[in-house]
Amino acid sequence: MSGSYRIGQLFKGRLDSYTVAKKVRDTIWLAKDQTGSPAVIKFARGNDTVRNERDILKRFQGHSHFIGQLKDEVEVPASSDPAIVLEYLEDDLLSASKKRPLTGKEIKYVSKQVLRALDLLHSAGYVHTDLKLDNVLVNYKNHDHDSGMPKTLSDIHLADFGGTSHVNSQITKAGGNHWGARLANTQLSDGEYELQILIQQSKYFGPFPPKYVDLVRSDEIAMATIAYVLDTVESLTPFNMTTEREVSKADKEFICKIMKIDPRDRPTAKELLLDPWFEPGLELS
């Protein structure tokens, strides 16, 4: 298969047929089913992550309102790779937050729904490994017709499960720091991007506690990474020293719980869902 798709191209699925409408990324296209309802088609093009995402979504299908839904699989001519049809949501959280700042209540609401999705994965022994703003999909309600800007977030779905794997798999155990059910974990040998994250985390939430070395003592790359970070971060800017004017006390305490340098000190998603930071009956009107 050439891997080239075009607007107007028709793909036949097991449950419906889909007409390609718009390119989102190289292998991700918006489409419409036979009723004209929008959907998303994700093509594999020789990449095992789509096959893995299909299997993960099948496993958790119908178990949570906060995980993206697998709608169908389509046949791609001259290819044995799967192409999956996913539920369409209007936006992602990165784009939404650029359009206007999220309110404090919206931030708590989104956080709670994402934690619910993570708790479901973690309870079954799976970790997402790619948690970021553009992998959280959203719908809107109560549009402000005067400004044309979305007014309120509604549906929140955790998406992109191509890198999701079981905690006992070789993928999650690779590198200097294993992935696990503790929040905001980062592998030490994932490349330049992750190294910069580690540097920033050390700057604002460091320094590395002495016991952290116990986790990576047998990994030369990880030990070298820590040494590099310690040499790079010339001075700390402790987040916990921010004033009430900058960040509220409650928000600061919640963030500091998640951003512990040592993953063993971080709360799980299940523990965070019980945190008093979340107001009882939190909903968006």
TrEMBL record:
GO molecular function per UniProt: ATP binding; protein kinase activity
Protein name as it appears in the record: STE protein kinase
Keywords: Kinase, Transferase
Native source species: Capronia epimyces CBS 606.96
All copies of domain Protein kinase, residue ranges: 1-278
Superkingdom of source: Eukaryota
A Pfam family of this chain: Pkinase
Coiled-coil residue spans: none
